[in-house]
Design brief:
Elements lengths: L4 H9 L6 E3 L7 H5 L17 E5 L2 E10 L8 E8 L7
Antiparallel strand pairs: 1-2, 2-3, 3-4
Subcellular location: Cell membrane
Keywords: Cell membrane, Cell projection, Chemotaxis, Cilium, Flagellar rotation, Flagellum, Membrane
InterPro entries: FliN-like_C, FliN/MopA/SpaO, FliN_T3SS_HrcQb, SpoA-like_sf
Amino acid sequence: MDDTSAPANGALQRVPIEITISVGRARPQVRDLMRLRRDTVLPLDRRVSDPVELFVGERLIARGELQELDGDKAGYLGVRLTEVIDMSEGI
C-alpha cells in the first residue's frame, strides 16, 4: 500500500481558509441606497438574538451566536458555535 498521500494531507490541513460570518441582509431600493450617509441605520432581515451563519465560500458550515471576547481580546467579537453542518463530504 502506498502511503505517499499522508504528508500531503497533513500539509493541506494546515492551509488557512477564510470564514465569512453573515449577520443578515439588507434589501434597500436603489433610491434608498443613493441616500445613504454617515450615521444612517440600515435595517437587516434579522433580530439581534438570531443566529449568525458561517460560510466558506458559498457553503454554509455552521451557525452561532456573536459574543464579545474577554481578556487580551476584550472588545473583539467572536462566535460561539451552536450548530455545525456535517462536512464529511468536504467543504
